[in-house]
Design brief:
The structure holds two protein chains of two kinds.
Chain A (H helix, E strand, L loop, with lengths): L2 H8 L4 H30 L5 H46 L4 H34 L3 E2 L2 E2 L8 H28 L16 H20 L6 H37 L3 H12 L1 H30 L12 H34 L1 H10 L3 H30 L1 H10 L1 H21 L5 H4 L7
Helix pairs in contact in A: 1-4, 2-3, 2-4, 2-5, 2-10, 3-4, 3-5, 3-9, 3-10, 4-5, 6-7, 7-8, 7-9, 7-12, 8-12, 9-10, 9-12, 9-13, 9-14, 10-14, 12-13, 12-14, 13-14
Chain B lengths: L9 E12 L2 E12 L3 E5 L6 H8 L7 E6 L7 E2 L5 H11 E5 L10 H10 L5 H14 L15 H14 L4 E5 L7 H14 L6 E5 L3 H4 L4 E6 L2 E7 L7
Parallel strand pairs in B: 3-8, 3-9, 6-7, 7-8
Antiparallel strand pairs in B: 1-2, 1-4, 4-5, 9-10
Helix pairs in contact in B: 3-4, 3-5, 4-5, 5-6
Classes of the chains: A mainly alpha, B alpha/beta.
Amino acid sequence: MNTLHMAWMLARPSSSGRIVQLLTVGAYTMVSAMVLIVLGGAWSFTKLEGDAQGFYIPLAAFALVLLVVPLLVLGSSAAKLSARAQDRALSSLRLLGATGLQVRAVAVIQAAATALVGAICGVVLYLALAPAVALVKFQGEAIGTAIFLPPLATAAAVLAVLLLSVVSALAGLRKLVITPLAVATRRSVPMPSWMRAVIAIGSIVVIYTLFSKVGLLPVGLGVLITIVISGFGVGLLALNLIGPWLVAKVGTAKLKKAESPEQLLAARMILESPGGAWRQVSGVAMAAFVAVIGGSGAAMFAFSENDVAGSWEMYLSADVLTGVLVTLSISLICVAISAAISQCAGTLDRQDLYLGLHRLGVDLGVVNKARVKSVMIPALTVAIGFTVASAALVLPFASLALLLKPLTVATVLVVLLAGLLVIRLSLNIADPRRLLADHSGR
Amino acid sequence: MLQNSYVSNPVISARRLLRSYGSTHALNGIDVDIAAGTAVAIMGPSGSGKSTLLHALAGIELPDSGTVTLNLPGQAPVEVDGLGDSARTKLRREAFGFVFQSGLLIPELTAEENVAMALMVNGVPRTAAIARAVEALQQLGLAGMEQRRIGQLSGGQQQRVAIARAQVTGASVVFADEPTGALDSVTGSEVLDILMQCTVGMGKSLVMVTHDRQVAQRCHRILTLQDGKITADDSVVQGPRS
């Protein structure tokens, strides 16, 4: 039997496997559509007039950098879901004597095929959503047909999604190839060290100091923007360092205080992998960061817009606010989708345990509450923690913005809160009471 | 063909149980009583209806027709088949204990937390639940392992944790489905000893599905099923060795 034949045979799943396969295709569809919309939006700035282009394109690039993390998390969730769907079948193949190379090839073919179907659906979704996205206004005019990417760029984006699926499939199956029983091994995850917090806080202090002196440097606007964006990049890396530590700290505190079964289970789920819990909601940190920095920026531009009446700069405040809200929304949608996918995968992965617990008399509602808490506790922690940290980073601007344009700041914060609500609602899709309803007895 | 299996003073009474999956009759008119404080083994070939009978008696699954009545001491009889899903779930966690072949322990939790969880879902505060869980684990020879995660325990130790969870609530009836099926013979024998001590040894009832004749011989009675019917109801002469 050749590798293609094996891949084809394993591609015909059971009924529960079919749900996972549909979810995986759906996940890749969302990843592709989001990537194309984001790139389309950035692409539309190339149609702006010269001076505006010079300002808008670096900002769009900055927004793209911020969106890379949630998009990667979403892509990785889709790839992991795909790998999970194959785990048992591939493990059996390995036990039946298939070589490591054959198992790898089957995994890659299946992941790439699923991703390709999802990516094609994603292009269709992007084209379907484009008319709505085209109504978004920059420089006083709707984006219009500028949202459509050139065919080559669209193909490159699809290829990138395929590549992501292949890399994730290979990474996920590395253990399986080493030992067929590796998938059943559960190892303890070490707690993130406090050194992470020290390094991260140190980096933030350095950036803060650098930013407060940056205006005095004898450099041009281009260099200045590069310094500022690089500083934010380092800041994001620092936040990424502190994130797992922060989540672990909150998880430990919740474990100590846990009184109900769902609180205990949720705290243990978080502490099972603080890094994983952080990655799941890291997009919320990015969103909080964008909300505070971007919201303050939009408010500051609004304060000076009377001086620039008649030039392209008169739209700056509104456009920065639009950009912030769009970045915020996409970032939070990505988190909501990836959290829903991961939770669905988790529920399906553990259906034997959950149904067994139900037989023992544990209400599946308890399990559901624990799952929701295991996502929402880190999400809220990160949202509050990183809003405060970002505000501290740009304290003078943030406080000025709050005083001068409270409505702008309020709008951004309301979108952030709405995003958290969307994340909470998206978790309902993974409710074991619904997802496992066919198996939980009469 | 033996169609009924009555005893006096039953803790569970099942009458005319019918359950079909398509054209297959998993339970085909079974009448059976489970006496309080006794161990009953259910044997039979694969597909004979053993697990379906255990699920029907425990209120996990509802029969297509027939009745299951629970008679707990000092309480009014409960018609299990007349209860809705949430009421049966509540009944299972309050009145019954379960030990399954796979253990069904939550891997994120420690041994003591897995046992305490059975009490916490019944509303016992965490501190009290952990204290009782630790005591139960120590009684089963797991002293010093209370804070280990499930992945850090052997198969036999995991089944002991499952037994501790089944008995910590003070359940009057414990249902076990192939509790030693995944263990080697020596460990299986040790686990069975503990299961007997924690159930019939303490005046509770045990209903156990098993393929293993030697395991079944440890019970008071052996019910043999074939095609959804009880074909034999044998008393074991030497009785259970708890």
